Amino acid sequence: MSQYIAKDNVPSGKGVRIAIVTTEWNDNITGRLTESAVATLKKHGVGDNDCPVFTVPGAVELTFAASQLIEAELFDAIIVFGCVIRGGTPHFDYVCQSVTQGITTLNGDCDIPVVFGVLTVNNLQEALDRAGGPHGDKGAECAECALKMVAFNKQVEAL
Fold first, then answer.
1. Quick check: is 44 catalytic?
2. Per annotation, catalytic residue among 14, 43, 91, 154
């Protein structure tokens, strides 16, 4: 039996454990994303102790941290937050490619969903616009996505 989860219908987080990994780099943005995600998870029933936040230096380290949390087998999902702002060198491209490929690989190889909350923007204003500004609240969106992916996994396990 198929169960469709409508876009605006967020599954309950009761009994769900979701880890958040956030970067120190551009913490004025990643802090906003993290705070919003935690508030959204709690709003949907995730317990105070069931959404721990871990910090890593930068976006490239997100893949390693998520991998370690997956191996710990303590969480139903992981959310990673980073913010990479384009500069005048190719560093932006390398960092964005590395973290995108790393998280994509984890999602393909592992049984725990890793939600990609890395903003890749041209300037600080674009990041602010996505961290609770006119272009949405990516922190809350990632939290809702994580809850939906946990529900998806439970559907698959019930088959």
1. no
2. 91
